[in-house]
Amino acid sequence: MTNQLVLPPLYPQQRAAIYAPERYSIIEASTKSGKTMGCMVWLLHQAWTDGSPGREFWWVAPIFEQAKIAFKRIRLGLTLDGRPPAINLTARTIELPNGATLWFKSADKPDSLYGEDVYAAVIDEATRCKAESWHAVRSTLTHTRGPLRIIGNVKGRKNWVYHLARKAEAGEPDMSYHKLTAYDAADGGIIRIEEIEDAQRVLPREVFRELYLAEPSDDGGNPFGLSAIADCLAPLSSQPAVCWGVDLAKSVDYTVLIGLDAGGRVCRFERFKKPWQETLQTVRQCVGTTRTAVDSTGVGDPIVEALQRGGTGSFSGVKFTSTSKQQLMEGLAVAIQQQTIRFPDGPIRAELDAFEYAYSRVGVQYSAPNGQHDDCVMALALAVSIFPKYGVGPLVSRIAGL
Ligand SMILES: Nc1ncnc2c1ncn2[C@@H]1O[C@H](COP(=O)(O)OP(=O)(O)OP(=O)(O)O)[C@@H](O)[C@H]1O
Ligand SMILES: [Mg+2]
Fold this sequence. Notes:
Shape: elongated
Bound molecules: adenosine-5'-triphosphate, magnesium ion
Strand content: 15-25%
InterPro entries: P-loop_NTPase (IPR027417)
Oligomer: single chain
Largest sheet: 8 strands, mixed
CATH superfamily of the largest domain: P-loop containing nucleotide triphosphate hydrolases
Number of domains: 2
């Protein structure tokens, strides 16, 4: 074979984790620590050295779109004698000169992963892959006794990767466990320290710990932190409100009004389902002339206009977009973690406890689990966004149009 495989060098911790001698390596890793790149190098190396005609080497990612990223990166990065490798764009395979084929697969249909003999495999973004996909990939490596790399961000404790990682850490035969933090990646020269420090400043603590330090949260991804939420509990205050947040009912949920007193304590909490005319009246009666941020998304828009038109109130409409919602949630997370606000036990706390975050290519997204309400959380976040003494900063004020 005239071709020589020239691979980019991995930084020492990346190499130690991915090139571990054990058959299975389970790697809990920071975002941007070189998971995908390191494992691509490893899989290509396996296929190059252990490949022969007909032998398959698999890249598995949560959905096909993600598998395609690795396909594209290898396809564009690999040249053989100055020529591109033999690729099949339809099947998304890359054939090497020794006859080995790299396949790029999605984990969302685990049944389709059974049946082949595979000589080495990577499960990338493993915490987002179904457990069944790991069972399937494991079965394809049985006959070949092929090695496997399982790598991903950590995501709470309620997933198969967390449990497998703990087994590996406890010394299960044939398994090695590694952690790659953002600081390891910084030592390796692929991430800037300032980038990590900035993430630490702007992200909620739990999110930063999972994404950058690879330390799972206790609760499976609550962006506020269950203990921080518990630390903010206090009975309803009897002081007057200095600002209000109002989340208007959409088709199935409630209208929620939350007032904060001058100390940041919830002093009024109203939750009801009423026809629009009565809703308008109740909102006006409750808030009087105090500054109020109201959700003006969709059907909320004419309601906010009606509130602004009639009377002496001080209403600002806030349109929820994915960006403004995330900014409001980040402001709320900071307020909770710094204990700048207090709220009573009950529906507000229950909704905060149930909240989840998901990390995607566009950033961190906060939401209530499917089918659960978020109206108390939204009303609280709106009130926090205009709380006079609380320095949420110009970002949130801008959303509120203030
Ligand atoms: N050993 C290395 N040497 C130089 N650059 C590297 C190395 N490893 C990774 N990189 C670069 O660092 C960046 C992040 O790498 P990569 O996409 O593999 O990280 P990741 O952990 O998979 O990120 P994500 O969290 O987005 O999935 C890429 O631009 C990649 O080319
Ligand atoms: Mg990646």
